[in-house]
Design a protein that fits this description.
By secondary structure, this protein is α/β, with parallel strands linked by helices. Helix 1 crosses helix 4. Strand 2, helix 7 and strand 3 form a beta-alpha-beta unit. It contains 10 helices and 6 strands.
Length: 225
């Protein structure tokens, strides 16, 4: 059997398309304070960062108490939307994502993990909604780590699985994901369907559909050493 390898996925913008709910939650947060929301592209630019860091960067002209209220308003709106509509409706999987996960999971030598800016509660609900229990050996979330692009989440995945960095690949749609993977010393795959312009990613390789994922992984970290 080939030596084990580790495939780490970002979630929002990589596995699921949650942009409509993200934009709705941002819009609700600002509207609740009678503030005009930033343009859509600016909101999506910060997807993947820890929520507490987003509003000071997105609206630096506001003070800290307002940033805190925006953070809570976003959380409340996101929770309400997910509760009333369900994960499948608010965060649909991208075409081919489930098939790609199933194929990788069936490989005894491939371990799967998640490194996401979501909260633990948010990730748990998503996994429950799609029946992905048991898919990800390591699940790293924003609650317990510094924000991306700090490498802590990837390092935790490596520690929990025992897989070496040179046998690991990080898959994501934002510069935060790719920079995090690079800082942890792992290979990186950028996806073109996410929230950051593909030309900004500077990943080791770029894919344009999940059909290309498996060959990209093989090319970067191979089946065996």
């Amino acid at each position: 059997m080939p030596e084990p390898r580790l495939v780490i996925f970002d979630v929002d913008g990589t596995l699921v398309d949650s942009q409509e709910m993200i934009v709705a939650a941002f819009t609700h947060a600002y509207g609740g304070l009678d503030l005009a929301p930033p343009p859509r592209d600016q909101m999506l630019r910060f997807v993947g960062r820890s929520l507490e860091l987003i509003f000071p960067e997105l609206s630096p002209e506001l003070d800290a108490p307002l940033h805190d209220k925006l953070t809570q308003g976003y959380r409340d709106a996101y929770f309400h939307l997910r509760k009333t509509r369900g994960s499948n409706a608010t965060s649909p999987l991208y075409p081919g994502a489930m098939r790609a996960l199933e194929t990788l999971r069936a490989q005894d030598w491939t371990l799967l993990a998640v490194a996401t800016g979501k909260s633990k509660r948010g990730l748990d609900k998503l996994i429950e909604g799609y029946g992905l229990e048991g898919y990800f050996l390591s699940q790293q979330v924003a609650d317990f780590h510094p924000s991306k692009p700090h490498p802590a989440m990837v390092q935790a995945c490596l520690n929990e699985t025992g897989v070496a960095a040179d046998r690991t690949v990080m898959i994501g749609d934002t510069t935060f994901d790719i920079d995090m993977g690079r800082a942890a010393g792992v290979k990186t795959i950028g996806v073109s369907w996410g929230y950051h312009p593909v030309e900004t990613l500077q990943a080791d390789t770029i894919i344009h559909s999940f059909d290309a994922l498996h060959s990209a992984i093989d090319d970067l970290i191979g089946l065996e050493t």
